[in-house]
Amino acid sequence: MSKFGTKDFIEEILFFGMTTKSNVNRDVRISKLCLNICVGESGDRLTRAAKVLEQLSGQQPVFSKARYTVRSFGIRRNEKISVHCTVRGARAEEILERGLKVKEYELRRRNFSNTGNFGFGVQEHIDLGIKYDPSIGIYGMDFYVVMHRNGFRVCKRRRRKSTIGVQHKIRKEEAMKWFQTKYDGIILNN
After folding, report:
1. What is the dihedral of CA 147, 25, 93, 36, to 10 degrees?
2. Which of 13, 78, 79, 84 could anchor a disulfide with 36, C-beta 3.0 to 4.6 Å?
3. Cα–Cα dist 56/145, whole Å
4. What are the pLDDT digits (tens) for 4-52?
């Protein structure tokens, strides 16, 4: 019998400081944060929503068009109905922190997708620390966080494109564990 599995050997490793390091390429991190405000109509309300996103993210937002006409909603095909922007890096983490503070660091299990991404919504943008302006009004918005690991570029690059292995993909449970450890978050089961 080898001594590698015994309790004495493990204590010996800990005593001499030979602890095993975790693989940094397995670390889960934020790839991007997508912010979306859907107004449902073009015009002045949409431009004011764009101002809100510009104040929050510090970058120029993009307008989205309706895919098809829905008469009951009063929207026509190719009419601008929403505004969104994508934030990356430290700025994304800062905005996400503010959004989670509004939600009191509580998310539901169904907020997490099977691919390890998660999203939630806030009712009023003034809760994020933006000063209320009567000329703009109050808007709600959607947050969607896309997670990744080192090596995810292999499925996005142009040359020698490949697939990500099953063991390297991010699962729902891993994203939930990341949320609980990084933000001391609470996950509700309903």
Report:
1. -20
2. 84
3. 16
4. 556 665 555 555 555 567 888 889 999 999 999 998 888 899 999 999 9
Contact status, residue 150 vs residue 71, Cβ threshold 8 Å: no
Q: Which residues contact 48 (CB under 8 A, 6 or more apart)?
A: 135, 136, 137, 139
Coil, helix or strand at residue 136:
coil
Amino acid at 3: K
Encode pLDDT of 77-119 as tens digits: 999 999 999 999 999 999 999 999 999 999 999 999 999 999 9
pTM above 0.70, yes or no: yes
Of 118, 104, 110, 91, give the one whose Cα is nearest residue 183. Answer: 104
Whole-angstrom Cα distance, residue 99 to residue 14?
40
Query: Considering only CA atoms, which of 167, 165, 177 is closest in space to residue 118?
Result: 177
- 3-state SS class at 101: helix
